């Protein structure tokens, strides 16, 4: 792909992330093109259908969260790194859940999702569980907590959170961290 084509694709994905987060299923590819500053033809040259655009946007977002989780996992203080990751993921949760809700129905094993989305979701989950296990090994998280527990708590926070509720979200994440035995 040419450099300008790759740049346009990235602009479209970034715009799609914001438009889909704001409008959900009501978002249009025209709005994405307008926000990206490209023509609708550019959007469809990169993504044949709106569903292809949604899947690519979800993959990109999950990959971004995975990279963030892996970078935080490199921190010397596993407990603080996990607490920071939880705060970051709770703040990112509403966008992530909106994108994932736009995907076709699937079962708990990811059946029904495209391979790239499934792989991105699996990588994200592995990074999250790795950060949890590191915190547990350092004595900075309860040993009985599982990755499923953390995922459920993050989903609950995501569905209950309005992006404008910064202070309330901080308190809620603090309560969750206390319950997980993670120092703040």
From TrEMBL:
Gene3D superfamilies: Tetracycline Repressor, domain 2 (1.10.357.10). SUPFAM superfamilies: Homeodomain-like, Tetracyclin repressor-like, C-terminal domain. Keywords: DNA-binding, Transcription, Transcription regulation. Residues 6-65 form the HTH tetR-type domain. This is Helix-turn-helix domain containing protein. InterPro entries: Homeodomain-like_sf (IPR009057), HTH-type_TetR-like_transc_reg (IPR050109), HTH_TetR (IPR001647), Tet_transcr_reg_TetR-rel_C_sf (IPR036271), TetR_SbtR-like_C (IPR049445). Pfam families: TetR_C_43, TetR_N. The keyword Transcription applies. Residues 28-47 bind DNA.
């Amino acid at each position: 792909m040419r450099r300008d084509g790759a740049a346009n694709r990235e602009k479209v994905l970034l715009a799609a992330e914001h438009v889909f987060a704001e409008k959900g299923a009501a978002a249009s590819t025209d709005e994405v093109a307008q926000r990206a500053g490209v023509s609708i033809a550019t959007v469809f040259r990169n993504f044949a259908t709106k569903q292809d655009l949604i899947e690519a946007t979800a993959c990109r977002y999950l990959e971004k969260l995975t990279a963030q989780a892996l970078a935080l996992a490199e921190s010397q203080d596993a407990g603080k790194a996990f607490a920071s990751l939880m705060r970051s993921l709770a703040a990112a949760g509403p966008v992530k859940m909106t994108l994932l809700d736009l995907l076709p129905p699937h079962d708990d094993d990811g059946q029904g999702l495209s391979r790239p989305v499934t792989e991105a979701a699996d990588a994200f989950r592995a990074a999250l569980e790795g950060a949890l296990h590191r915190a547990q090994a350092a004595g900075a998280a309860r040993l009985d907590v599982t990755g499923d527990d953390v995922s459920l708590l993050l989903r609950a926070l995501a569905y209950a959170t309005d992006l404008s509720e910064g202070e309330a979200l901080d308190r809620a994440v603090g309560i969750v961290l206390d319950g997980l035995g993670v120092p703040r």
